[in-house]
Design brief:
- The protein is of the alpha/beta class.
- The protein has a single domain, classed as NAD(P)-binding Rossmann-like Domain (Rossmann fold).
- About 40% of the residues lie in helices and about 15% in strands.
- α2 links the parallel β2 and β3.
- The radius of gyration is 18 Å and the shape is globular.
- The chain starts with 11 loop residues before the first strand and ends in a 10-residue tail after the last strand.
- The structure holds nicotinamide-adenine-dinucleotide (NAD).
- The site of nicotinamide-adenine-dinucleotide has 30 residues, from α1 and α4.
């Protein structure tokens, strides 16, 4: 019997979007658990700041910072080669790069027919293809190593309709579907050695939704109030409240868990609003 199912010390995890609000938080957490963490991030300045924060918190952290683009296969392959050169293997991938953009959301005074298709395509590209491409590049290394866990980021908008948020919701619905699809494919092709799951975060304040949910003075916007009313916990999530779910899905504690989408939402999806 394995005594510590949650031991991830020494495992090599690639985190995309690792300088983002949620990615940075979990990447630092994984480093503090003695995992070897590869920070794959587009924005080099944010990456440097995040790495410095990680080193300050965990001076002996094993980390590798790489600038990369989840939409560019050559960039991902270069990152994979750098990871193999330094650590020799890949045990997991956290597909944290993703998000929304203004034009793919319908403004309050507009209708669906004003949708900016270019913005819609960009959001679908980042969330869906930005999850598929890193999986294509890193999953073969997990298959070779005989062990692996992929964790994707879905959203409650894939489960419950959020008014106005059309592009992001469609893309996260696709990420949820792709998570299950790849879980089945990997289960059949690896005899269960490589697992694929997703977290479904509720509302966490980040760069992309801050102005939608809170005013300059920190008070809630009308939409922010609606979100809180529909979240049984009556508050937004804190980035570190996703750590446990992700740790579990990456670890041997979840060895028979694949294709699951784990809600971390203060009860938002369970609640009818009544
Ligand atoms: N914050 C929330 O409330 C919330 C809720 C549900 C789901 N999510 C999802 O969780 C994930 C992380 O969200 P977040 O709030 O930390 O977002 P964030 O915007 O803070 O972080 C995203 C990071 O990805 C990076 N990035 C963007 N494009 C990239 C590319 N092409 N290649 C590499 N890196 C790229 C950005 O530079 C940024 O550092 C996203 O998929 C998001 O959609 C967030």
């Amino acid at each position: 019997m394995k005594s510590n199912l949650f031991d991830i010390g020494g495992r090599v995890y690639v985190v995309t979007g690792a300088a983002g609000v949620l990615g940075n938080s979990v990447a630092r957490y994984l480093a503090a658990q003695k995992a070897k963490v590869v920070w794959l991030e587009f924005d080099i300045q944010r990456l440097e700041t995040a790495l410095a924060q990680c080193k300050a918190e965990t001076p002996d952290a094993e980390v590798l910072g790489l600038q990369g683009n989840v939409l560019d296969r050559a960039s991902l392959e270069a990152a994979r080669d750098a990871v193999l050169k330094k650590y020799g293997r890949v045990d997991g991938l956290l597909n944290g790069a993703g998000g929304n953009m203004a034009g793919a959301t319908i403004a309050p005074d507009k209708s669906f027919f004003d949708l900016d298709m270019d913005a819609f395509r960009k959001v679908v590209d980042l969330n869906l293809n930005g999850t598929v491409l890193p999986s294509l590049v890193f999953a073969p290394e997990m298959m070779k190593g005989g062990r692996g866990a992929i964790v994707n980021y879905s959203s409650v908008s894939a489960f419950q309709v959020l008014t106005r948020v059309v592009g992001y919701s469609a893309s996260k619905g696709a990420v949820t579907n792709f998570t299950r699809w790849l879980a089945v494919d990997m289960a059949r092709n690896t005899g269960g050695k490589v697992r694929v799951n997703a977290v479904m975060p509720g509302f966490f304040i980040g760069e992309q939704n801050r102005r939608l949910l809170t005013n300059e003075d920190g008070s809630l916007t009308e939409r922010g109030q609606l979100v809180i009313q529909n979240t049984p916990f009556g508050r937004f999530g804190e980035a570190d409240e996703l750590h446990g779910a992700i740790h579990y899905l990456l670890s041997d504690a979840a060895s028979f868990v694949t294709g699951s989408v784990l809600e971390v939402d203060g009860g938002f999806c369970a609640f009818s609003g009544v």
